[in-house]
Amino acid sequence: MTVLKTSMRSFFAHKGRMALSAVAVMLSVAFVSGTLVFTDTMGATFDKLFAATSADVTVSPKNTKGGDETPETGKPESLPASTVARVQKADGVKRAEGNVVSTSVTVVDKDNENMGSTTGAPTIAGNWTSNDRKSMDITSGHAPRGPTEMMVDADTADKHGLKLGDELRTVAVTGDIRAKITGIATFRVTNPGAAVVYFDTATAQRKLLGATGRFTQVSVSADTNVTHELLKKNVASELGAGAFKYQTQKETADASREDMSGFLDVMKYAMLGFAGIALLVGVFLIVNTFSMLVAQRTREIGLMRAIGSSRKQVNRSVLVEALMLGVLGSVLGVGAGVGLAVGLMKLMGGMGIELDTSELTVAWTTPVIGLALGIVVTVLAAWLPARRAGRVSPMAALRDAGTPADGRTGLVRAVLGVLLTGGGAAALYGAAQAEKAGDGSMLLGAGVLLTLVGFVVIGPVVAGFFVRALSLVVARPFGRVGRLSERNALRNPRRTGATGAALMVGLALVASLSVVGSSMVASATDELDKSVGADFIIQSDMGQPITPAVEKKVRASGDLETVTAYKNVKADITAPDGKKLDTELSATQPSYMKDLRRETASGDLADAYAKNAMSVGEDFAKDHRIKVGDPLTVAFEHGRTAELRVGAITKDDTAVDQGAMYVNITTVKAHVPADRMPLNSIMFGTAKDGRADAAYEALKADLKPYPQFKVRDQADFKQTLKDQVGQMLNMVYGLLALAIVVAVLGVVNTLALSVVERTREIGMMRAIGLSRRQMRRMIRLESVVIALFGALLGLGLGMSWGATAQQILALEGLGVLAVPWSTILGVFAGSALVGLIAALVPAFRAGRMNVLNAIATE
Q1: In which residue ranges is the amino acid composition biased (Basic and acidic residues) (predicted)?
Q2: Distance from the CA of 288 to the CA of which of 357, 434, 724, 772 falls in 20 to 30 A?
Q3: Residue 617, CA atoms < 13 Å, CB-side half-sphere
Q4: Backbone φ and ψ of 179, nearest 5°
Q5: ∠ CA 828-834-839, rounded to 5°
Q6: In which order are the strands placed within the sheet that holds 57-61?
Q7: CA nearest 28: which of 352, 280, 257, 366?
Q8: Using N-to-C axis directions, what is the helix angle for 311-350 and 298-306, rounded to 10°?
Q9: Which helix (DSSP H) or strand (DSSP E) does residue 815 occupy?
Q10: What gap in Å lies between CA 708 and CA 107, rounded to an integer?
Q11: What is the helix, strand, coil percentage profile of the chain, to 5?
Q12: Do the beta carbons of residue 699 and residue 652 sit within 8 Å?
């Protein structure tokens, strides 16, 4: 009880000093809790949608693909309409209804604006059925009754300002559907962002499937007292197991959830990873806070020991303070996390993924995880300072208060830091020299971990050297004030090292990702310059296959010398070693050899375009002992089995089409029925001499009615790559900003506690003539030097990580190392600004001190 009272008295006596540490704990826990609430809410929203839209039992073709994956033919798998009548005969069936559902469509308005989401949510087209009435209500107009009528969901109508009577054009594989909106239907549950349009059944069959008398699935409703499992069994008995797939409502919802789980898991664990980084940075802040508080209370602790307190009691007293800090910060963090989740939902709404805040999902595990994480991390971070406090001797009561307890950095720290850093450097070197990307990635992970820990350990050892070097440029030009700031930074290397390490972690990640991102762009640009001979590339950014209408327009362009189609054809290959491999062939025309220049390890690529021939990649050939002239047994999906001769083996030292297996489109057509031929996934065009500009403008004009497809010349393509990488990096930098904010709080806290620790010293300096302005400048210079010290360590470490990662990427064809010096120098300069900002409050407090009161402080 005495320990608890002492701890509480000390905690509230230093509540101002604890505040920033509590904020650091709060921010870290808030990010973890917010991530969990946000992803749980998103998961629950999709679960409700899937449950509401799934029939009691769904019958679909056996080879139907899951999720929103667009089939290569552009038309979904279907089954004969007669299946509906057969299902209706099964015992326990209340109603069987044929559905048409397609995600291979794009809906555009009169201004040629795409109605669909650009964030990955699909555009879904189909026929209006009784099953849809389970999850939607027609709130305006009526369902479509003919080929010129359609219905849209209310969310899409609101987002794009659509109303009854507006005409929309739906682009499908079989052609365009022009129809006026005659109805608007509203979801009873939250629609996370899909655009949904409905047609009458005959139009949906003819335009979406290309055939009448076909459906993509049959929705089955159960009679009263018939379970879904029994209904599924009865329907399967009626139809047989051969050509159909049967799923209960739960199985359909689970399958849809599984399709979404990859996206949700990536988002969840990526955000938790950044929360972990912020938490790691917060550890440095907490360690520093308690180390300095223990140092400032040396005399007080010595008196406690002198009057009978044991080491365990002193140790426990500090840990109880940490426990109180952890509880306070964690409770605030869990609450802030809910607010953060709401903010993320609003942000996602602006990006096209709609989530309703009224459906906010806070699982019981979220506050438990948040509280446990914050409390455990805080107590563990305070453990070393607590041990140090327990070692304080009763003789310390005779010393002045505020005597630093850290002492000189020990030899053990130096040796351990060198060993860890050396081991990490060796791992990074091994990763750079690896021959396989998988081996290199494992060594890279080990190298990153070891060098990071090594730099944290060795930071106080090298602090003196770096602080002196930086002070020569930053502090000493300000004369004696600058020298005083340098000495203050050097006074306690352990404190300076820990404060710099907090900034180091975040900036190391910024630097490494900048190097990797710049290298990816530079490598891809270099590869395009060396390999791509085509003038134009036509494709959909959403992965949709090129429709026949678009292909026809491209081929009709009079300014193009050649047009090359590129199809992805799925097939099973039986290699000479007997292994059967599920793979994908790149079916192109011989002109592709000029569109993309590929070097061969053996053979002539032209021979791979001969009748019943193909090429394989160098690694594939080595793995399966394949050589030019060997026959391969190829079973085409939806087609016949053929024996194709290996005409060439291509080198795998390129990032474009690495490992691709080329085959002539005519060979594929000979073995795959016309109605099962995949559509083009991408097309290439080469302009006639002197007609490049005219061809470019003509193609863009011709494809303007199809906004889902982009025409890019090589300059456009390079810019697109740069923009995509830039967007990814900006998102990562935004998430890393939390770690930087926590690190800034660490600098503020260190300086604030340092000012308190040096109260008497500051009073003496003021008494002998140091002005308030000079005092503030001294604190600011000290802060800038510490911030730049952390930046130097972080940027140097991060560039070494990034350079190593690039060497691993070089194995995948990305062989150009590019260091974004403008970003690196900008971050370094920004660190100085961070130091200035962090010093504002401590410098103001130091300058405002009463001289006599400061001198009288014990």
Answers
A1: 65-75
A2: 772
A3: 18
A4: -150, 150
A5: 135
A6: 93-99, 217-222, 57-61, 244-248
A7: 280
A8: 140
A9: none
A10: 10
A11: 60, 15, 25
A12: no
Position 405 scores a pLDDT of: 41
For range 737-763, the mean pLDDT: 72
Kindly list the distances between the CA atom of residue 833 and the CA atoms of 467, 660, 744, 825, 836, in Å, as whole numbers in the listed order.
17, 49, 11, 13, 5
Contact indicator for 612, 643 with CB cutoff of 8 Å: yes
How confident is the model at residue 12, as a pLDDT?
Answer: 55
- 541 and 843 Cβ atoms separated by less than 8 Å: no
Say whether pLDDT at 234 is over 70: yes
- For residues 149 and 164, the answer to whether their CB atoms sit within 8 Å is no
Q: Which residue, 822, 839, 729, is CA-closest to 786?
A: 839
Q: Are residues 344 and 37 in contact, defined by beta-carbon separation less than 8 angstroms?
A: no
pTM of the predicted model as reported, rounded to 2 decimal places:
0.81
Q: Where are the alpha helices (DSSP H) in 810-839?
A: 821-838
pLDDT tens-place string over residues 297-337: 666 666 666 666 677 777 777 777 778 888 888 899 898 88
Q: Evaluate whether 301 touches 314 at the Cβ level (below 8 Å).
A: yes
- Secondary structure of 430-456 as H, E, C letters: HHHHCCCHHHHHHHHHHHHHHHHHHHH
Which helix H or strand E contains 126, and what residues bound it?
strand 123-127
How far apart are alpha carbons 359 and 48 in whole angstroms?
Answer: 10
Residues 6 or more apart whose Cβ sits within 8 Å of residue 130 = 95, 97, 219, 221
Q: Tell me what the mean pLDDT of segment 250-267 comes to.
A: 82
439 vs 451: CA distance, rounded Å:
18
Q: Which of 651, 584, 663, 656 is nearest to 622 (CA)?
A: 651
Highest mean pLDDT among 213-227, 432-446, 812-826: 213-227
Q: CA torsion angle for 789, 790, 794, 796 (degrees, to 10)? A: 0
For residue 253, the one-letter residue type is A
Residue 810 CA to residue 143 CA, distance in Å, equals: 56
Q: Compute the half-sphere exposure of residue 818: CA atoms within 13 Å on the CB side of its CA.
A: 18
